[in-house]
Amino acid sequence: MTSTTGVASRAMAGFGKSALGRAFGSWLGKIAGGFLILLLLMAIFAPWITPFDYAAQDLMNGNTPPAWPHLLGTDRFGRDVLSRVIYGARTSLSVSATAIAISVSVGMTLGAAAGYFGGLFERVVMTVVDLTWSFPDILIALIFVAIIGPGLTSTMFAIAIAYLAQFTRLTRAQIVQLKRETFIEATINLGARPSHILLRHLLPNAIAPVIVVGMLAIGDGIVLEATLGFFGLGAQPPTPSWGAMMSSGTAQLFLSPWVIIFPGVVVAVTVVAVNLFGDELIRALDIRDRIRGA
Amino acid sequence: MLLRYIFFRALMLIPVSISISVVIFMIVHLIPGDPIDNLIRVGSSPSDRAALVVKYGLDQSIFVQYFRWVGAMFHGDFGTAIVLRRPVADLIAQNLPYSLTLGAFAFAFSSIVGIILGTISATTRSKVVQQFVRGFILLGSTVPGFWLALLMILFFAVQLQWFPVSGARGWDSLVLPVLTIGFGGVALVARVTRVALLDVRREDFVVLLHAKGLSSAAILFRHLLPHAMLPVVTILALRIGWILGGAVTVEFVFARPGLGSLLIRALGQRDYPVVQGSLLMLALAVMLGTLIGDVAQAMMDPRIREAKT
């Protein structure tokens, strides 16, 4: 029997070669994808490209407007906004991507099991999942903060739970549809075990839309992380996070608006880029109907 | 038939609210440490502590505690706020009307403007208008609400001084919060309206209507829009809670009184009775909103009330 990771990586390989290339084909895909790659590189190489230490305070130069050498200005402690924005990319991307990766794996497992086995199990899973779906992500996040306490761990849990419903629904809908296909019936009649059918035949055929929706959800996760950080319930100081930066900026909203504007612009542009690129991927893979159907 | 549907749909609220109340009840028991440590004021004596243990029934089993907690809430007793030292029920009663007003206005604004915008973008031939609406939808569904709220304050309240920066005095203080929440809501509704209209337009009966010489306006208002409203109502029913969720964020930024700002402040202060009370009220609001949305949907679509009863 092939391991799950083996199947997943094979599906991803086929997924990557053609579709990614086609998504980069349009000019919109090039801009959005290019920006995301740039952001990723920024996050990875943050220590080497930041002009200043993100935590270094320089109280004499607090609240200076954008100018050389502080290209995006400084906050009230005189910390360089640009350096903090670059480091913030690390926090935002890693928290959101990790949380969504957890959410996708759990959601796919639940959805596949629900879709394949059906019955009472399916009804229970889908009722619970639909329930979480009707609750706004911020409310789910706040429940987690209440239980675990403020911090990046509860942020991650919150993101993972808040978007779990989409992946579960999407996987289940596809498995249910695929189960009716002739080739699956044939495989069942050949005597294949459920695990074989699920891992070798159903999941590989269902994985592409889930991955793309997962990519889109990373954008939502970034916004949720920033929102919690803004409330002071996410990343705690001195961890640089886009949301927390804006939160500390509200005190000087009128005096130094750049402390709020620039991190917000980065969040907004990132999420728009994620959505545009995700849209190009959906078009390239021709899976719009499969996503809408769930 | 419809009454039957409403009855069974309302019946669904019971297991749902039980499970939610259990989750919210467990918050105090799941946080690390002794629940009393989270309830007690700093500097209390051991006898105060013992009194609190008895008062909250922490010497009883967890089931007894849960039923006591729920039972007290049916009598309007939500406990006492630790930091504000006032009954939580009072705090909720004080803040709830502000949230409801904001939520209702934001919901109405999102639905009306969203449907109009979606209809325009689906019917216009102008590429510029289509691109504009597409860009608006993209921005509206992606830009973080709290950041938009800050920009609104910077531009409309500080630069132009058209509206107050914060607070909830007078009707003009509602404008910026409603616009902020509405921005996302409008984008959502506009997108669904647009897609639904484009779908319906391809149906055979629409071709027939054109063929028999009905004017485009009559087709749009008498036939296309009523059909397209179904998915719109569905998404509104499903996402009613999300619009309320937007209110949580926006209240906090505009320093408006309301359940959202009450909750976020209480979370920062670890004031757990307030956290539990306001979470429960928000959850209840979401559930009732979803119920109303589902019923509206069933009123419009006979297939739903047949299928689910």
Descriptive report:
The complex is a heterodimer of chains A (294) and B (309). Chain A has a single domain, classed as MetI-like (MetI-like fold, Orthogonal Bundle). In chain A, 75% of the residues lie in helices and 0% in strands. Chain A contains 13 helices and no strands. In chain A, helix 4 runs antiparallel to helix 10 (194-230). Chain A is elongated. The model of chain A is unreliable at 1-6 (pLDDT under 50). Helices cover 80% and strands 0% of the residues of chain B. The N and C termini of chain B lie close together (8 Å). Chains A and B meet through helix 5, helix 6, helix 10 and helix 12 of A and helix 2, helix 7, helix 8, helix 11 and helix 12 of B.
Can you describe this structure in just a few lines?
The complex is a heterodimer of chains A (294) and B (309). Chain A is mainly α and 294 residues long. In chain A, 75% of the residues lie in helices and 0% in strands.
What composes the largest sheet of chain A?
Answer: none
**Hey, which two chains have the biggest interface?**
A-B, 38 and 45 residues
Biggest sheet details of chain B: none
Quick check: average pLDDT of chain B? 81
Which of globular, elongated, flat, extended, rod-shaped describes the shape of chain A?
A: elongated
Overall structural class of chain B, as computed from helix and strand content, comes to: mainly alpha
Using the 3D structure, state the CATH architecture of chain A: Orthogonal Bundle
Quaternary: heterodimer
What's the gyration radius of chain B in Å?
24 Å
Distinct helical segment count of chain A: 13
| Secondary-structure element series of chain A | HHHHHHHHHHHHH
SSE layout:
The complex is a heterodimer of chains A (294) and B (309).
Chain A: H1 4-23, H2 27-44, H3 46-49, H4 81-117, H5 119-134, H6 137-148, H7 152-162, H8 164-179, H9 182-189, H10 194-230, H11 242-249, H12 258-285, H13 288-293
Chain B: H1 2-11, H2 13-30, H3 35-39, H4 46-55, H5 62-74, H6 88-123, H7 127-142, H8 145-159, H9 172-201, H10 204-211, H11 216-253, H12 259-269, H13 272-300, H14 302-308
